[in-house]
Amino acid sequence: MIYLYAAYAATWTIHITYLAWVLLRYRRLRREIYELRKAVR
User: Fold this and answer.
1) CA-CA distance, 15 to 10, in Å (whole number)?
2) How far apart are CA 9 and CA 12, in angstroms?
3) DSSP character for 22?
């Protein structure tokens, strides 16, 4: 049963890490879009 808890914890850790990585990429992309729009105007 301990392996089940370890697998559950590992799965959530992977999901949370992936979500944080996606959010960081999204913020960086929004910033680049803003800078490009500002440069075009």
Assistant:
1) 9
2) 5
3) H
pLDDT of the residue at 5: 96
Which residue segment(s) compose the domain that 14 sits in?
1-41
Distance of alpha carbon 39 from alpha carbon 24, whole angstroms: 23
Work out how many domains the chain is built from and give that number: 1
- The rounded distance, in Å, linking the Cα atoms of 10 and 16 is 10
State pLDDT tens for residues 1-41.
999 999 999 999 999 999 999 999 999 999 999 999 999 98
DSSP type of residue 29: H
CA distance 14 to 6: 12
